[in-house]
């Protein structure tokens, strides 16, 4: 009996055809097979915001990433005190700048809207400020998160399309507008923009680079017949990019290992990439590490561009001059004064997992480089100054968080509510090795008006 070789090889290929953990994983693998390895930034962008399976842009049936039952819980979800103190900070900064009569309140990446809800509720108690708010702007790319924000902030008020995206009216009376990009939010020199970014920058894509030794080219080697060897050029160092590639498929004859293997892995590029040739040269902080082989750095161009945009909205620029006004408050996690390294992580069910498993179904994040944000803001505008970062525990305590917690429990007796409020406050300011009060930091961008530096409240200044 003669067997068809074509049918045999076909059935074998089908039998051993690789299975990908998610449809997005297969899409990424097909793209890599066509165009080659991709940057970590491209991988993160697809995993988080792809319209075809992104973590934040694709609803997952029965799964809400936020809250105790989801993949992570944020400070506003832990306690109302957090959002109230942010609202107080905005009002205090507005008062310190002379109570201007036109205000924008902007949040980038507002999650479920919990923080903005607490901020607006708090600001309502300060009627002059509430009356000065022209509009509230929420920068959100996810349609289903926008719907959740609208439901919380606006209730039954209709959500209508407008020139920048969508619009409604909050239950506190302010006009609320949604746009997918910060660039769509009007930048009016006659208004004071107060910009909030809580756990936003950690989700913005990063590139990862490593310094490697490269041997001198043959043309630079010296050949001599002298008994004394001529001096040879020292090895040079250059930045190479770590790229995302599929993990090697398991052998069809291998015994199953106990756990699953991530779909992708990191591979060092054999040659410089356009990103490795440019991005690490943009700051002396990166250039100082180049001579040390093995140095690894993470750079987020989107973060730097956003910090640049925020700074020019507050302080103006040569092409868009304005009187400095407004402020930005950034709250996120990362080292206070060093460049992040090896910080890319996946998060699922409140646990750290590989960022390369089940793409699109795992949240991805990386430590924020606060030094880079400060540098970008200062370089963007002569009309701003930067304060911080300071630990979240210090910031919230300086804003009166402990006193607010005591006020909330007063009169409640020994009830479960008291334990919940006190426990939530302790969690926000926990300064243990992995405590939120230590890991999370606050950074402020405020107007620079010349003369003596004015420290904002929460950063060493008074109300």
Automatic annotation (TrEMBL):
Reactions mediated catalytically: L-arginyl-[protein] + 2 S-adenosyl-L-methionine = N(omega),N(omega)'-dimethyl-L-arginyl-[protein] + 2 S-adenosyl-L-homocysteine + 2 H(+)
GO cellular component, one term: mitochondrion
Family designation: Belongs to the NDUFAF7 family.
Region (Disordered): 216-237
Keywords: Methyltransferase, Mitochondrion, Transferase
PANTHER family with a match to the protein in the record: PROTEIN ARGININE METHYLTRANSFERASE NDUFAF7, MITOCHONDRIAL (PTHR12049:SF7)
GO MF term (any one): protein-arginine omega-N symmetric methyltransferase activity
Chief location of this protein within or outside the cell: mitochondrion
Protein name: Protein arginine methyltransferase NDUFAF7
Listed InterPro entries: NDUFAF7, NDUFAF7_sf, SAM-dependent_MTases_sf
The organism of origin for this protein: Trichodelitschia bisporula
EC number: 2.1.1.320
Signal peptide: none
